[in-house]
Amino acid sequence: MSSLEKRLAAEKRFKFYGMFAMTLSLFFVLILMYKIFSTGSGAFVRTTINADVYFDPNFIEVSSNSSKKEIMKASYVDLADQVINQNHPGLDEENFIKVREMYTRKFDYQLRDYIANNPNVIGKTVNLDISASSDLDQIVKGNYPRNVPEAQRKINDYQLSILDSLDSKGKMSKTFNFWFFTNGDSRDPETAGILGALMGSFYALLICFSFAFPIGLLASVYLEEFVKPGKITDIIEVNINNLAAVPSIVYGLLGLGMLIGVFGMPYQVPLVGGLVLGFMTLPTIIIASRASLRGVPPSIREGALAVGATKMQTVFHHVIPLSLPGTLTGTIIGMAQALGETAPLLLVGMVAFVMEIPGGAFDPATGLPSQIYLWSESAERGFLEKTSAGIMLLLSFLIIMNTVAVLVRRKLEVKW
Amino acid sequence: MVDQNSNYALQTSEVYVHYGKKMAINNVALNFPKNEVTSLIGPSGCGKSTFLRCLNRMNDVIDICNVKGKFLLNGNVDIYSPDIQVETLREKVGMVFQKPNPFPKTIYENVAYGPKIHGIASSQNELDEIVKDSLHRAGLYEEVKDRMDDIATGLSGGQQQRLCIARAIAIRPEIILMDEPCSALDPIATAKIEDLINELRENYTIIIVTHSMSQASRVSSKTAFFHLGNLVEYGETGKIFTKPDKEQTNDYITGRFG
User: Fold this and answer.
1) Cβ of B95 and A306 within 8 Å?
2) Could you read off the pLDDT of A125-144 as tens digits, one per residue?
3) Which residues in chain B are closer than 8 Å to A318, comparing Cβ atoms?
4) Residue B79: its chain A contacts at CB < 8 A?
5) Chain B neighbors of A313, CB-CB under 8 A
6) Closest residue to B63, CB basis, from A228, A322, A414
7) Whether CATH 1.10.3720.10 fits A195-412
8) Residue A11 reports pLDDT greater than 80
9) Bridge partners for B31 per DSSP
């Protein structure tokens, strides 16, 4: 073989290696996506049981004239039991419990919410779709096998026979699971939602941005435009670059030790989580911002100085506006990273069971990644779907943020 | 020697400039007569641009640059005195750079920026008037009057450079420094700028650094020839280009070196 042929063959081989590596990585991404989507899609659908609900005034503590607050405070457990007795007549006590288990434990809350929205329904009969319990839901979705011995099943033979008879009457149906998007966390998979964690992450990122962006921007402007380069700036530069690579759990420890330990800030709140994420994002923002400040041509600074602008005017009127697209891109990417960070949230306590949707940065909350972590640890099969659905949501937010970063850069970038 | 009661816009003497340890200007003394164009010529690295940048203290930005010497504006203002604000100096001594450097903002904002920060205009109308007048003087108004809100970086190179001249004269300087203003332009745009310099000399003292000897002879009445940081010869442009006193000058202008 001639030398040229050898070189060309080497090139061909190299191309093949490249394509092989590409295909392989694409394959793994596809497997990951398939796994997440096939498991998670179930979380968006909920099994319901159709039932005639007679809002019997004898079992309701409130009347249609009661205030919304009274309606929300009252108990509807008896009404729920009554509805089950009506729809499944002639149950003995043992079988009643079995049938009750087929419906969601939050049956009474579902009735309460319906009354709160339609107070004059009391005394009337309405046809409602009641949410099934998570175990029944999993049987219907086929995630729990039916053909195993009764002892290994969460749904026993009696419940299965009831299910089949309901199904043959066309009473079983599926509905879009809005609860996943509107509820906070819950012990019961069928009513557990992501909104609490979403709001927790939102407040944490808000704090993170308002803390890290101004400080990062000003620090980089000072380092890049005002301070004279020397030993001290070299040391600072090396340290900033190192801080960008420090594992996030270290920042979590910093938050636990300093913010909570020394400053006495509360545990579990997005304020502390956001500040810790802010510490973590700060070096990223400074590095991105310095790079984009360096990208502003010196001729612009000279032009402004030559018409008699002060250093400060030059920087704030011309240099910063021109560097902003790069700074914002860096900030958004840093924030996307912060959104997915779990370890710092674990250390500052944003990983507890929180049912209420946080109304601000001072309310106890979880974050998206810590909620996913919490669900992944739960034993019920119903939470497995929620885990994957949570990951889907987290990934969509990351994709959206990164797309915004690219668009910002394209839209605002100045061409020279 | 510094002449206290002269018709000079700017007088300099005993000027030394060092970049770190390296000497860039070695004992230069040069006076610039009012309302005349003086060109600084010489081979690359001879220090002519460095000297020019001393005159509005643009070298202050460079940390390692060290300037010594006497610089008198209008015979009495020492521009390196600690009492002088560099911003007020630059209000009097404007500058146009080698590469057109308009701000990536609108044409209007480019010209209005200087008057705005110095508070020259007391009303929006006055500011509009200054912008219009400056663009007129820079010979650009007719070309851009319908697109004052367009981004300036969309203009052609020659237009951008004239915009930079308009930006410089909008703050009503006494002296305009030009650092090879045509080196990035084509011959037609260059001719326009040269015509403009001829018109501007009536109201401003102009000091221009140029690599083109024909340009120096076309636009300037006085010429200074620099070589290796020394001022070799200074005199009437006509004389420098026809009967220079020094051998070195003669060699340079006839193209034997440089």
Assistant:
1) yes
2) 889 899 999 999 999 988 88
3) 103
4) none
5) 117
6) A228
7) yes
8) yes
9) B11
pTM for the model stands at 0.85
Phi first, then psi: what are they for B23, rounded to 5°? Answer: -85, 130
Name chain A contacts of B168, Cβ cutoff 8 Å. Answer: 306-307
Neighbours of B97 (CB within 10 A): 21
Question: B8-86+95-253 maps to which CATH number?
Answer: 3.40.50.300
With CB atoms and an 8 Å threshold, state whether A300 touches B153.
Answer: no
CB contact under 8 A, A309 and B87: yes
Q: Among candidates A227, A223, A311, which has minimal Cα distance to B58? A: A311
Share of chain A above pLDDT 70, in %: 99
3-state secondary structure A286-308: HHHHHHHHHCCCHHHHHHHHHCC
Contact A308, B88 (CB under 8 A): yes
Contact B97 A228 (CB under 8 A): no
Of A305, A313, A416, the CB nearest to B61: A305
Question: What CA–CA distance (Å, rounded) separates A241 from A288?
Answer: 11
Q: What is the pLDDT of residue A68?
A: 83
Closest in B61, B88, B114 to A307, CB measured = B114
Residue B4 confidence (pLDDT): 52
Among chain A residues, CA nearest to B87: A308
Question: What are the sequence ranges of the domains in chain A?
Answer: 49-175, 195-412
Which residue blocks in A59-194 are alpha helix, DSSP H? 68-73, 77-87, 93-100, 107-117, 134-141, 157-168, 179-182
Which of B104, B113, B153 is the closest to A307 by Cβ?
Answer: B113
To the nearest 10°, the Cα dihedral for B159, B162, B167, B173?
180
User: Distance (Å) from the C-alpha of residue A361 to the closest C-alpha of chain B?
Assistant: 39
Average pLDDT of chain A is 91
Which of B117, B134, B41 minimizes the C-alpha distance to A304?
B117
Of the listed ranges A63-72, A86-95, B80-89, B145-154, the least confidently predicted one is A63-72
* A394 φψ region: left (φ > 0), alpha (ψ -120 to 50), beta (else): alpha
**Pairing label, strands B93-96, B175-179:** parallel
Q: Is the pLDDT of residue A116 over 60?
A: yes
pLDDT confidence of residue B253: 85
pLDDT digits (tens, 9 = 90+) for A307-364: 999 999 999 999 999 999 999 999 999 999 999 999 999 999 999 899 999 999 999 9
- Scored b (16 or more CB within 10 A) or e, A153-175 reads bebeeebbebbeebeeeebbeee
